[in-house]
Amino acid sequence: MKIDGYTRTCGLIGNPVEHTMSPAIHNTLAEELSEKLVYVPFRVPEDKLGEAVEGAFALNLLGCNVTVPYKSRVIPFLKEIDSLARDIGAVNTLVRVEDGFKGYNTDMPGLYRAMCGDGVRLEGEKALILGAGGVARAVAMLLSVHGASQIVILNRTVEKAERLAEEINTFSGRQLAEAMALTDYGALPRGEKYLAIQATNLGMFPRVEEAVIEDRAFYEKIHTGYDLIFNPSRTKFMSLVEEMGGRAFNGLRMLLYQGIIAYELWTGVKVDEELAGKAYGEMRRAMKPEEQHPEQKPE
Ligand code: NAP
Q1: pLDDT tens per residue, range 42-84
Q2: How far is the CA of 52 from the centre of ligand 1 (A)?
Q3: Which end of the chain, N or C, is more open, meaning fewer C-beta atoms within 10 Å of its C-beta?
């Protein structure tokens, strides 16, 4: 891409940022759409977040993504916040407005777009969430907004699951969510089948041989399993779901679509599925080969 005086910059604010696949998504989209836009990762130290946001505005950046560990911490430095991002309590996309940045959360719409593409419905669904961290909270909101009929939140630290379930019940105005210790999965009713969303860190590279629950009996209860982990692209959780007859998906398309939705917010263009497919291919190629499961090299 030829960079000239008209080229706009978008960036990623996080720490660390070295393993990100976002440049592959955004720079592919910009190139394919012939937009004068480049996307660059910026490693920002803990005590410099406010200065980084202010500096990004001063340098005329069009927008930014925000990643770990700043998705909640960035909120005080924004001029405006979208209502979904406020409800979720996390911002992963900054869009330039007149006097600063407006914060959005595209992670959840990204997961929803991926799920729709995979033919996964949320309405009326009974769902299990494994984990009660930042992403699990957003997933619980998504399930609530899209009409899930029941949410069971299983977490190692059961108090965190209880707090999250309470929050979701207050948010939805109904007794939708309940908490369970991770080890108590045997108490789930026999014969019931669930959509399960794996939102813990367990199973991520390099701990690819681990799953948060390893008992096959648990996986009999899952008709569809979504692991939000994308490295490796086939996790132990996914293998167990499939082994017991369920359908399994990884977090790569969530990552892809959160990027696409951010790109659409920055530029106003609509990214079609053909272009999304090209960005997906580039993103897979950008995964460092040594970080991938040996059987999971890009197609
Ligand atoms: P987080 O806030 O740190 O929460 C981590 C969760 O994992 C907690 O529920 C924690 O349980 C649980 N956990 C960690 N180690 C565990 C262990 N050894 N045994 C059992 N449970 C364990 O993290 P997060 O930001 O929500 O991220 C969660 C996952 O989502 C990560 O794997 C990340 O890769 C993925 N993610 C994917 C995308 C995407 O685009 N696909 C985007 C963002 C995040 P305790 O509460 O007991 O500590």
Answers
A1: 999 999 999 999 999 999 999 999 999 999 999 999 999 999 9
A2: 26
A3: C
